[in-house]
Amino acid sequence: MANITASVYTSHVPAIGAAMDLGKTQEPYWAPLFAGYEASKAWLADERPDVVLLVYNDHANAFSLDLIPTFAIGCAAEFMPADEGWGPRPVPKVVGHPELAAHIAQSLILDDFDLTIANRMEVDHGLTVPLNLMCGSPAQWPFAVIPFAVNVVQYPVPSGMRCYRLGQAIRRAVASYDKPLKVQVWGTGGMSHQLQGPRAGLINREWDNAWLDRLIADPAAVATVPHIEYVREAGSEGIELVMWLIARGAMDDASGGATPRLVRRFYHVPASNTAVGHLILENQR
Ligand code: DHB
Ligand code: FE
User: Fold this and answer.
1) What is the value of pTM for the model shown?
2) Is the CB of 237 under 6 A from ligand 1?
3) Which SS3 state, helix, strand or coil, does residue 21 take?
4) Dihedral angle at the C-alpha atoms of 265, 271, 273, 277, nearest 10 degrees?
5) What share of the chain is helix, strand, coil (3-state, %, to 5)?
6) Helices (H) and strands (E) in the chain, counts
7) Which of 6, 20, 93, 285 has most Cβ atoms within 10 angstroms of its Cβ?
8) Ligand nearest to the CA of 16
9) Local confidence band at 280 (pLDDT 50, 70, 90 cut-offs)
């Protein structure tokens, strides 16, 4: 039976990808950020998951205002990096896991979560930057990835509670797959940032860190945080944080099991306009 062993949480910022692609990771501005992921990269290399279900948001690259799926699961064999305006990033193609993805789609839809099935989809920085932060720049990504796109760009976006319950359903879906795969669920995006309007550049360290405390210790309570609190306290793009609740809901304790172990916690400002947060939680074996 497949098993969710751990969850990983990290912000995404396109400039982090550009820093890697242009060889700037050791520059004084970027070095402290990348240093914060070194222990996490070692942990991941040691963990060797078979599949990562990577919850992220598309930024009008694969989708546009023409078509706005709330939740879309990537069921293809592979996913190419999107051209976000400067050509596709020089990163490996993402190799999927169509069989597990189709199983998860079936399980979730029969569990009353109406997913969009994506049989062809390009992936943007929302997906590739978290992979880079956790894996560096390998010739091939070291595991299969099931892209799981969430609309956090155009309202109405899903509530924190919907995301948390979806995570619980993902746990049931993975547990009912009959092959022995080691699966991780990643929640990405956030933390505080606002890219436009009079409050552009907003960062809220205090709220971010209190939110991390709460996500670790009492995720069911964090699931009740309304959209307006994210927007007010973490800025308009801080709403990306609801995606972390999908990964958190997939952990054992969210379904009555044991409390996960906190492996890693990191927080760093500045990275472009965004406060970068990062956690790793491991289910007890
Ligand atoms: C930035 C952050 C994002 O989440 C994004 O999608 C684009 C840009 C930034 O901080 O520059
Ligand atoms: Fe973003």
Assistant:
1) 0.98
2) yes
3) helix
4) -10
5) 35, 25, 40
6) 10, 10
7) 6
8) 1
9) very high
CA of 149 to the centre of ligand 1 (A): 16
Q: Measured between alpha carbons, how far is 271 from 67 in angstroms, rounded to an integer?
A: 30
- The answer to whether the CB of 58 is under 6 A from ligand 1 is no
What type of residue sits at position 267? Y
Q: What pLDDT score was predicted for residue 282?
A: 98
At 207, which helix (H) or strand (E)? helix 205-217
Report the pLDDT averaged over residues 267-282: 98
Query: 3-class DSSP state for residue 85?
Result: coil
In three-state secondary structure terms, 14 is helix
DSSP β-bridge partners for residue 229: none
Whether the pLDDT of residue 285 is over 90: the answer is: no
- 196 is written with which tokens? 């436009």
Strands 71-74 and 116-118 turn out to be parallel
**For residues 273 and 190, what is the distance between their CA atoms, to the nearest angstrom?**
11
Q: Are 242 and 150 in contact (CB under 8 A)?
A: yes
Q: Is 12 a catalytic residue?
A: no
Query: How many of the other CB atoms lie within 10 Å of CB of 95?
Result: 14
Q: Rounded CA gap, 135 and 180, in Å?
A: 23
For residues 118 and 102, the answer to whether their CB atoms sit within 8 Å is no
Establish whether 97 is a catalytic residue: no
As a residue count, the chain comes to 285
Please report the DSSP string for 216-270 in residue order.
HH-HHHHTT--HHHHHHHH-GGGGGGGGHHHHHHTSGGGGT-PPPEEEEEEEEEE
Residue 13 CB less than 6 A away from ligand 1: yes
Catalytic residue among 59, 97, 103, 125: 125
Phi/psi for 130 (5° steps) reads: -55, -40
Give me 126's structure tokens: 């929302």
Q: What are phi and psi of 132, to 5 degrees?
A: -60, -45
